[in-house]
């Protein structure tokens, strides 16, 4: 083969530069989205939003300012618009929406519910899962699940009284054990690890760091993933710690599925797992058992989707409550009246009663300020296109609208960044309006399937943690530790830690 000449290399470089230049000219002056306002650099290249997402706390935090400057519908990528108002959000995410999800190749989640792009595929999978996540199903399992895990969590804290506890890890151990036990009737006993230092949880926690790299550079991300998968397993797990976390979770799910497949008589237990339901499809309804790899991916998805989100909300609540003497004393006074015996464990139905109104308001405000999945949840316009704010948006355009923006809308939530549970103690009509604006669990056909499980976990943890313990975060956790960046879920800069003291009364 003849050697490549310097001249050919120079031609290739010149051709690449010309290609990029022409592409930018096209995007700025001929692209169907050319008339939409926004920074010119964002319209010219994906690198604009990639820079803000990967090198700053996230593009999402710049969006309020950008909307103020350019209006309610702005171009934030060559082929992506961002919608600011609630009407636009509801249009994209409503029940039966024709907007398709955009899925990026992610090894551990391919085939899961979240990877389904179209509504019929989503419905088929959710039909299996929705009854499993219903409020009634979660309440049925509470004596075997939440009561036991909560008791373990509180006992460990009792033993830690007088010491500083890393609640970032403690909440993740609690939520991971709960979700795995609920979904698979097996967990990793993370709550048993001294100091809540579960190796799997710590490694798993590094997963979100890579999430936005995948969003901005999907081909590169997928290429690197494939290369990594060729390395010896030990090296993969040492050098890419999140992979070890994911594999451990996958193995727990796979083991359960294989056990049930080999012991079909066990799949009719009174408290079924999500896999029992999938392995016993209702053929009259046209249900079909998903392939094993997809069931494993769904198992992994539940842990990915439910662990950090719920733990982040608990961290947000712990920080704000412990930093405000007026909020913490009002909460404690409610809890002491409603749970006179410090050591008793009440059930979640009791927490729905009027004796716990302030506790629930705290959870609601914690959900608002922890933002769920704060950033751009990407959807594509349907073949017929769509109209936002009177402007036609052509078919196949990516449109996004972030939860962060909705949850901090100052018109609905005055002083939006202040943790103020009182805002939820309002008349029914105002509550409804604020609730409609808050999107922590998103909405519609792709809204959070784990919402009931999340609420039960949040109510029980907040009520019992604050009833039994005095936690002092001041001096151990700073505002800077709580500053988050967007990694698909919110990821705080530091760990929330606090000195735990057992209450005597
Ligand atoms: C405070 C806790 C939680 C918050 C704030 C939250 C928030 C969200 C949000 C915003 C979405 C929509 C994401 C999107 O459209 O891409 C979502 C989806 C989802 N959530 Fe949650 N979540 C929480 C807890 C849970 C729990 C406990 C589980 C299950 C164990 C769970 C399972 C899921 C699943 C499977 C989806 C994907 C649904 C689909 O694609 O159709 N979540 N969650």
Describe the model.
The protein has 505 residues and is of the alpha+beta class. Helices cover 53% and strands 9% of the residues. It has two domains: 1-79, no CATH class; 85-502, Cytochrome P450 (Cytochrome p450, Orthogonal Bundle). The strands form four sheets. It has a five-stranded mixed β-sheet with strand order 1-2-8-5-3. A three-stranded antiparallel β-sheet has the order 4-12-9. Protoporphyrin IX containing FE binds at residues 113-114, 122, 179, 301-302, 305-306, 309-310, 313, 372-373, 377, 403, 440-442, 446, 448-450, 453-454. One of its GO terms (molecular function) is oxidoreductase activity, acting on paired donors, with incorporation or reduction of molecular oxygen.
Give a quick precis of the structure.
The protein is an alpha+beta fold and 505 residues long.
Keywords:
binds protoporphyrin IX containing FE, 23 helices, 505 residues, alpha+beta, Cytochrome p450, iron ion binding, iron
Outline the fold blueprint.
Elements: H1 6-29, H2 40-44, H3 47-55, H4 63-70, E1 73-77, E2 80-83, H5 86-93, E3 100-101, H6 119-132, H7 135-141, H8 146-159, E4 164-166, H9 167-184, H10 199-204, H11 211-216, H12 218-230, H13 233-239, H14 241-262, H15 274-279, H16 292-323, H17 325-338, H18 348-351, H19 357-370, E5 379-380, E6 386-388, E7 391-393, E8 398-400, H20 403-407, H21 428-437, H22 451-468, E9 469-472, H23 479-482, E10 484-487, E11 489-492, E12 497-502
Parallel strand pairs: 2-8
Antiparallel strand pairs: 1-2, 3-5, 4-12, 5-8, 6-7, 9-12, 10-11
Helix pairs in contact: 8-9, 9-16, 13-14, 14-16, 16-17, 16-19, 16-22, 17-22
The structure holds protoporphyrin IX containing FE (HEM).
Residues 113-114, 122, 179, 301-302, 305-306, 309-310, 313, 372-373, 377, 403, 440-442, 446, 448-450, 453-454 line the site of protoporphyrin IX containing FE.
């Amino acid at each position: 083969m003849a050697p490549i000449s310097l001249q050919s290399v120079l031609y290739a470089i010149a051709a690449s530069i010309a290609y990029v230049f022409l592409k930018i000219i096209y995007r700025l002056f001929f692209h169907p989205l050319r008339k939409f306002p926004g920074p010119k650099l964002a319209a010219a290249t994906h690198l604009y939003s990639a820079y803000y997402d990967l090198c700053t706390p996230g593009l999402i935090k710049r969006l309020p300012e950008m909307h103020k400057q350019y209006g309610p519908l702005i171009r934030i990528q060559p082929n992506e618009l961002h919608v600011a108002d609630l009407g636009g959000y509801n249009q994209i995410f409503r029940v039966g929406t024709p907007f398709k999800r955009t899925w990026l190749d992610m090894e551990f989640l391919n085939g899961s519910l979240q990877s389904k792009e179209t509504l019929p595929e989503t419905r088929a999978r959710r039909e299996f899962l929705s009854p499993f996540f219903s409020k009634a199903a979660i309440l049925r399992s509470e004596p075997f699940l939440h009561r036991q895990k909560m008791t373990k969590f509180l006992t460990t804290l009792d033993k830690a009284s007088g010491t500083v506890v890393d609640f970032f890890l403690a909440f993740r151990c609690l939520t991971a054990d709960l979700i795995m036990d609920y979904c698979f009737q097996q967990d990793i006993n993370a709550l048993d690890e001294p100091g809540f230092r579960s190796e799997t949880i710590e490694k798993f926690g590094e997963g979100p760091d890579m999430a936005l790299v995948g969003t901005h550079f999907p081909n590169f991300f997928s290429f690197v993933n494939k290369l990594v998968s060729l390395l010896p397993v030990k090296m993969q797990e040492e050098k890419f710690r999140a992979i070890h976390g994911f594999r451990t979770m996958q193995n727990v799910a796979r083991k359960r599925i294989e056990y049930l497949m080999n012991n079909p008589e066990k799949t009719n237990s009174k408290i079924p797992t999500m896999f029992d339901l999938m392995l016993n499809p209702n053929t009259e309804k046209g249900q079909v058992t998903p392939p094993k790899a997809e069931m494993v991916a769904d198992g992994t998805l539940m842990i990915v989707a439910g662990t950090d989100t719920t733990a982040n909300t608990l961290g947000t609540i712990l920080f704000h409550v412990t930093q405000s003497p007026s909020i913490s004393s009002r909460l404690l006074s409610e809890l002491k009246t409603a749970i006179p015996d410090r050591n008793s464990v009440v059930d979640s139905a009791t927490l729905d009663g009027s004796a716990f109104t302030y506790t629930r308001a705290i959870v609601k405000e914690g959900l608002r300020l922890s933002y769920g999945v704060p950033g751009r949840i990407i959807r594509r316009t349907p073949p017929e296109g769509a109209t936002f704010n009177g402007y036609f948006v052509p078919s196949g355009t990516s449109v996004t609208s972030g939860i962060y923006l909705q949850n901090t809308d100052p018109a609905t939530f005055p002083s939006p960044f202040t943790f103020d549970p009182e805002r939820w103690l309002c008349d029914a009509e105002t509550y409804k309006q604020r609730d409609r604006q808050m999107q922590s669990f998103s909405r519609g056909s792709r809204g959070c399937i784990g919402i009931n499980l999340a609420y039960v976990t949040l109510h029980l943890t907040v009520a019992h943690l604050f009833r039994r313990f005095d936690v002092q975060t001041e001096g151990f956790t700073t505002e800077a530790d709580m500053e988050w960046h967007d990694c698909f879920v919110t990821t705080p800069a530091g760990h929330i830690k606090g000195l735990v003291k057992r209450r005597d009364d």
